[in-house]
Amino acid sequence: MKVLIACEESQAVTIEFRKLGIEAYSCDVKECTGGFPEWHIKGDALIEAYSGKYDLMIAHPPCTHLAVSGARHFKEKIKDGRQKASIEFFMKLANAPINHIVIENPICIMSKVWREPDQIIQPYYFGDEFQKTTCLWYKNMPYLKPTKIVSKGEFVTFSSGKRMSKWYAESFGDGTKRSKTFKGISEAMANQWKNLSKISIQQVLELK
Q1: Residue 99 CA to its chain's centroid (Å)
Q2: Ramachandran region, residue 119 (left: φ > 0; alpha: ψ -120 to 50; beta: rest)
Q3: Domain-embedded: residue 92
Q4: For a Cys staple, 4 with which of 57, 107, 126, 165, CB 3.0–4.6 Å?
Q5: Among 105-114, 128-137, 166-175, 179-188, which stretch is predicted with the lowest mean pLDDT?
Q6: What was the pLDDT predicted at 135?
Q7: Where residue 54 falls among pLDDT bands split at 50, 70, 90?
Q8: Is residue 51 within 8 Å of residue 30, measured between CB atoms?
Q9: Which pLDDT band, with edges at 50, 70 and 90, does 129 fall under?
Q10: E strands along 23-173, which residues?
Q11: Residue 207 lies in a domain
């Protein structure tokens, strides 16, 4: 099986697949920070997604102009075309000619623009004591099964009354840190989806 992890510079998911002996590649317009440049394709993820070389793609399209957490800026982003461009990029990944596809994003406008996510997960479902609501849209994929449910971790409460995960508040302004896939989720993706190419699409759907 050959796997494309689109829009990933951290190589968090790529590394977990590689540990299992699976040919996986991260792809991003940025240089990789995971330490394995030989497993990284620096360039346009859409070119790779439409190359016909992959059995599975796990894509992390940029959420800056899509996430509802930034809704106060939507009017400006709609006007200047940034949101439209992000929607189009997201949908091109979703419609790529690959048998098995996972699209990952936080809670965002794609739930209305396209469709509701197939699954919503949290890091604390997979052994990491953090909260980060993550939406997954699937094409011919079994759902990701929780591996170890733990506590949600520490939270901070602001003077406005807003409550936020401590790790998220402390990483404010660091988009790279906030967007990195947690280790527990990365391991679950690799371990649970490592044999997709060996079973039929009908069998995959029956696993949901």
Answers
A1: 17
A2: beta
A3: yes
A4: 57
A5: 166-175
A6: 97
A7: very high
A8: no
A9: very high
A10: 23-28, 40-42, 56-59, 100-105, 119-121, 134-139, 155-157, 163-165
A11: no
Pairing of strands 100-105, 23-28: unpaired
Q: How far apart are CA 119 and CA 100, in angstroms?
A: 15
Q: Are strands 163-165 and 40-42 parallel, antiparallel or unpaired?
A: unpaired
- Residue whose structure tokens are 């091109």: 92
Whole-angstrom distance, CA of residue 116 vs CA of residue 108 = 10
Quote the tokens at residue 60.
């992390």
CATH code of residue 193: 3.40.50.150
Dihedral over Cα of 62, 67, 71, 75: its sign: positive
Is residue 154 scored above 90 in pLDDT? no
Higher local confidence (pLDDT), 168 or 37: 37
163 within 8 A of 186, measured Cβ to Cβ: no
Chain center to CA of 153:
21
Give the residue numbers spanning the domain of 57. Answer: 2-197
- Say if 204 falls within a structural domain: no
**Number of neighbouring beta carbons within 10 Å of residue 180:** 21
